[in-house]
Amino acid sequence: MNLMKKLTLKNLKLNRKRTIVTIVGIILATALLSALVTLVSSFQYSMIEYQKQKDGDFHVKFSGVKMSELSEFKNNRNIESTFETMGMGFAKLDGCKNEDKPYAYVMATDEAGFEKGCFNLIEGRMAKNEDEIVIPRHLRTNGRIDIKVGDEITLDIGKRYDSNTESVIWENIAYEHEAETLTDTVTKQYKVVGIMERPGYGMEDYSAAGYTFVTYSNELAAIDNGTKSEESEADNTLTVYSRYTQKALRNKDAVTADIIGVDEKLFAKANNSSVEMSAEESDRFLKEMENAKYDIYINGFLISYECVFPIDGTFKALFTVATVVALIIILTSVYCIKNSFNISITEKIRQYGMLASVGATRRQIKSSVKTEAAMLGVVGIPVGTMSGILASFILVKVVNALSAGWLNFALSFHTSLPALILAVIMSIATIYFSATGSARRAAKVTPLEAIRNTKEIKIKSAKLKTPAIIGRIWGIGGVISYKNIKRNNKKYRTTVTSIVICSVTFIVISYFMSMAFSMVGMSYASVDYNIGINMSCKKDLDIEKLSELLSGIEGAEDYLVGAVYYFDVDKPEYTKEYGEYCGQLYDDSEDVSQEFLITVLNDKSYDKYASDAGIKNADTGAILVNKCTFDVYNEKSSKYVKEEMELYKYKAGDTIRCGYNVYDDASSDDNAVEGDTESSTEDNSGYVDEENINNGVRKTVDVTIAGVTDKVPTCYNGYGNTSLLFMNQKGFESLWADGKSGNEFKPGNAIYSAYVVAENADEYQDTLEKETAENPEYSQISFYVSNMDKQMRDEKSLFTLLGVFAYGLIVVIALIGITNIINTLSTGMELRSREFATLRSIGMTDKQFAGMVRLESVFISVKALVIGVPLGILISYLLCVMMNRMGAVIIYELPYKAIILCIVVVIMLIYAIMKLSMTKLRHNNIVETIKNENL
């Protein structure tokens, strides 16, 4: 070890306090970087595991694969692994209440299928032989067939046959009712050994005619074990679930197109939602898919979570947000370490000058500074990296412990070696460049300037003039404080800049997290209830009586009852923007009427909706929902982009003339609506043609607008782009009171529906069906109940998962900021202890000293916040604009909560640090402090 290295090490030991402060800064910055990459890695891994659990561990599903063709998948270098299922057939279920789903679809698989498929057990175990079977939970909640673990069931399994087309119907095709029968049935007895959640879309489509029952296949197990060749059973048809390699995922469209035998470019274009296909290309693609070798289902979410490059789908927005967050954290951490070094190196200028005066070269001085940085980094980086990993591990474990019982899955702790290496490299680079800049600055100073240490203070006498108000309020201490800030402008600029960066970072990151929630909500959130009910009757129903029924059942936390009536409006008052959009979709749009839905809500739900929308006197008319989001084609970019627009020029007090048809025998129309209560989210402009309008006797009614809003009631989020009006029952009935407007008949064919948030969905459904079956008052009403409890819980779990990591990032940002502020202020105060001791030695009282420190706190806080808050708002707005240009639809909302919290924390933190430092300095011996050359 040469002389300069020994001197550097000795200096670090002598200045232990400053050395510890700098090391702590490096540890915290490195720990935060390591925690960030670990949390992001854990978040991605958890989302992958969530999607595997929800839809299965596969990328593409191929249906209709012959057993003899299985080797083509097993030997395909683009396929990492596969599992297979075999369709045994359909069996009629006696007593099933869902008329659109009357079958059990029996599926067979082996250990690999049970492990990688989305068969999530609730009770019991998986099947281990061909005489055992696992049934889905929704057989009871949707089909109302109660089969328990241990029961023996007998199924007559056969093929679905369509008598009209004289062909076999595949498993995911909707029920054809009278057109289909079961043929070639074989009786099979099973023992129920388990109950599972409903399989995901990839295994059971929501329009499927059968409930998925899963048994074991010895045949598939023998093939996987290599004890049987697939060539011997060429006639059997399988469904192959394939998992692609990482390399194949980057070119998944070409790989899939090659397997099913269609044009690669056309297939890729069809699967790219941002690229428009011509009519000719669409027709050609449909024909190719009709003649494709296999039918496919793409597990798009799992692919988007696993395929980092290129990023596609919904996860693209989340990765964009995460990237911006990572950049902000890295830049803030870089500044934190650099700031710590700058303060330390600046105060050592005198020491470097003394070394230069006794013969040290510039190269040796630079080497001394870099050696010090390396010594500090050797200690700080490993400790910081391990601390970040440990903190992430503890966070995940704590969240899992607190969320046990209400989160559908456990968060997974996962570290990524490349990400950790990147964090370490960034920390090393930060230390190196920070030290290099300081070393270069130290080497340039001449020995005389360095020893005098006057280069840091450059001020003109005119700038030292102090405003009179400062002297009157804070006295001599305030005057000295103001002059000191002017004299040491560079040091105070460093402190203010540090606080500005922390403030901006916190505001921007908080806004981005709220934006991420909004974007994920638009992509995922569709169900905010767990019981959906459709009702049909040959007469009008009383909404309030239905409300009493639903609310009277124990466990109803919230509910809504509505009756939907269809109207049309001739030449509505479009806004210019919406009118142009309609012109893009339809020719001669002025001659086509716009469809409006008037939804009559129960009084409690309507009053709550009006209150949430801020509309007073809502009973006087209808509430118009006047904003929608559309996919608009941008000719410049040749892509579809989402755009939110106002629809009409109507305002409160205006009237809309709504047309409808009255038929000769309107009461005979059965408005039964069967099947799932899930609403369509397809882009539907709501136009109706003249042929539909002129069926029956044409009537009109004038509806007064009580208010205009962009909000919709709970449970109506899925109605797409239809024009919506909401009224209560009293207001709707008043439209026809005493033959008003010459109308004696209301429109028929109302669609009655209800949505309930129940504490226990299964118990609520049982009680509802029991009460409606036993009460003769409801004998003429058909109730179709859909238990959406699992879907609602899944979506809540997803938002919980996102929230944990989102707020975890905010905590990380806050820690960076607080660490940086504490480090900057406390180090600055300690380095000025000789200055403070000198002032006290010439007669400055404790009161004057306190006034001086308080004024400095005010100057620093006000200046930092005046710059930081507007800058944070500007950057968050620019990022919002950037996301909108990338195709998102986000309305900028001022992050006022983050701004208020930032202001309060900065003021309190600066005051607390100054107060503690001031108390500590008062106890220091004045003479010893002045004599201390290490400050």
UniProtKB/TrEMBL annotation:
Location in the cell: Cell membrane
Domain ABC3 transporter permease C-terminal stretches: 324-447, 809-925
GO terms for MF: transmembrane transporter activity
Entry's Gene Ontology cellular component terms: plasma membrane
Keyword Transmembrane carried by entry: yes
Its membrane topology: Multi-pass membrane protein
Residues spanning the membrane: 317-337, 373-396, 416-435, 494-513, 798-822, 858-882, 894-914
Pfam family, any one: FtsX
InterPro entries: ABC3_permease_C, MacB_PCD, Macrolide_Exporter_MacB
Keywords for this protein: Cell membrane, Membrane, Transmembrane, Transmembrane helix
Residue stretches of biased makeup (Acidic residues): 667-681
Signal peptide per UniProt: none
Region of interest (Disordered), residue spans: 667-693
Every MacB-like periplasmic core domain range: 19-217
Family: Belongs to the ABC-4 integral membrane protein family.
Protein name: Peptide ABC transporter permease
